């Protein structure tokens, strides 16, 4: 029996990269081991997240299923939402699409230019049991958590925010002064975070300008993380460090964040890119590029 080959798109939002499958007509389920193998940057395609576009049970434009590189399934990914929003808008010829996710319904719409997309990420969750945390804190702008010696901690008192997934933000003077690749895994799996957490280092270096470095749970260091950018923007405004409209500077580039006062929704705006088309043998996981540059979502449809 011949093996099954499925096409995919490789996309990124400011360097936060994804493999995208269209499973609306033909379902696709890969084991965590297969996802991790495809996500390996040395031996596989290499990506931060794997995105499966499926039919929505709610009748909206699509359901977006998200797996991290380690094979774990998560509820939200801001940069991926922008990428999938762009594809769905191009496919349908619309300026606004609604995407069902594990974190709820998200709306994506055209921003400034064909590659720039804004996503309404909804209302941030700020209560300790919504993050969630393992113990109660009345004020989540700065919780009691530190790493390192008690009298001289390396990092301490982060803000915590849930933007569809849990985030901890440590305010620092220099995001490059810390070995985030070393402390990130420890903080991600700290007992205070029962669902683990994304860890960000953030520095306000100018009016409403924040430099951020992110350790993403289940992924590691990443060039960009959309939900982290949202979380940092919210945390900065809550603490009076910035206004409600900020630019978050990640290693992959800037993301515009607005925590709208009228309804408390967080709007995220940034660029998207289609890198190439490819196809994967689902039995052997061997893969190859078939085209480069921008391509429609139909390139990822079942063959």
Automatic annotation (TrEMBL):
Catalytic activity annotated for this protein?
(2S,6S)-2,6-diaminopimelate = meso-2,6-diaminopimelate
Q: What is the enzyme's class at the highest EC level?
A: isomerase
- The site annotation (Could be important to modulate the pK values of the two catalytic cysteine residues) covers 167, 216
Q: Which residues bind substrate?
A: 16, 49, 68, 78-79, 165, 198, 216-217, 226-227
Catalytic residues (UniProt): 77, 77 (proton donor), 225 (proton acceptor)
**SUPFAM superfamilies linked to this entry:** Diaminopimelate epimerase-like
Q: What pathway annotation does it carry?
A: Amino-acid biosynthesis; L-lysine biosynthesis via DAP pathway; DL-2,6-diaminopimelate from LL-2,6-diaminopimelate: step 1/1
Give the GO cellular component terms, alphabetically: cytosol
For this protein, what is the EC number? 5.1.1.7
Subunit and interaction comment: Homodimer.
Q: Which family does it belong to?
A: Belongs to the diaminopimelate epimerase family.
Q: What is this protein called?
A: Diaminopimelate epimerase
The record lists the lineage as:
Bacteria, Pseudomonadati, Pseudomonadota, Alphaproteobacteria, Hyphomicrobiales
Provide the gene name from the record: dapF
């Amino acid at each position: 029996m011949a093996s099954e080959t499925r096409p995919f798109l490789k996309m990124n939002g400011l360097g936060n990269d994804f493999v995208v499958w269209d499973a609306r007509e033909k379902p696709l389920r890969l084991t965590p081991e297969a996802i991790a193998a495809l996500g390996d940057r040395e031996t596989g395609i290499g990506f931060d997240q794997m995105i499966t576009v499926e039919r929505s049970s709610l009748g909206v434009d699509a359901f977006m299923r998200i797996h991290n590189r380690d094979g774990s399934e998560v509820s939200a990914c801001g940069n991926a939402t922008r990428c999938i929003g762009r594809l769905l808008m191009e496919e349908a010829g619309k300026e606004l699409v609604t995407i069902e996710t594990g974190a709820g319904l998200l709306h994506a719409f055209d921003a400034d230019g064909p590659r720039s997309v804004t996503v309404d990420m909804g209302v941030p969750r700020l209560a300790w049991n919504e993050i969630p945390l393992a113990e109660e804190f009345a004020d989540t702008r700065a919780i009691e958590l530190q790493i390192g010696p008690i009298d001289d901690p390396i990092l301490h008192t982060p803000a915590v925010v849930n933007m569809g997934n849990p985030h901890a933000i440590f305010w620092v003077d220099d995001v490059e002064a810390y070995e985030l690749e070393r402390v990130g895994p420890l903080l991600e799996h700290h007992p205070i975070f029962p669902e683990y957490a994304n860890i960000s280092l953030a520095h306000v270096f100018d009016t409403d300008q924040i430099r951020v470095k992110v350790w993403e749970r289940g992924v590691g260091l990443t060039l960009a993380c959309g939900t982290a950018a949202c979380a940092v923007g919210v945390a900065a405004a809550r603490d009076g460090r910035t206004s409600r409209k900020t630019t978050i500077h990640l290693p992959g580039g800037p993301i515009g964040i607005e925590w709208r006062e009228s309804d408390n929704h967080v709007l995220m705006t940034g660029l998207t890119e289609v890198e190439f088309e490819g196809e994967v043998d689902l039995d052997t996981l061997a893969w190859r590029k078939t085209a480069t540059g921008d391509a429609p979502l139909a390139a990822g449809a079942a063959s």
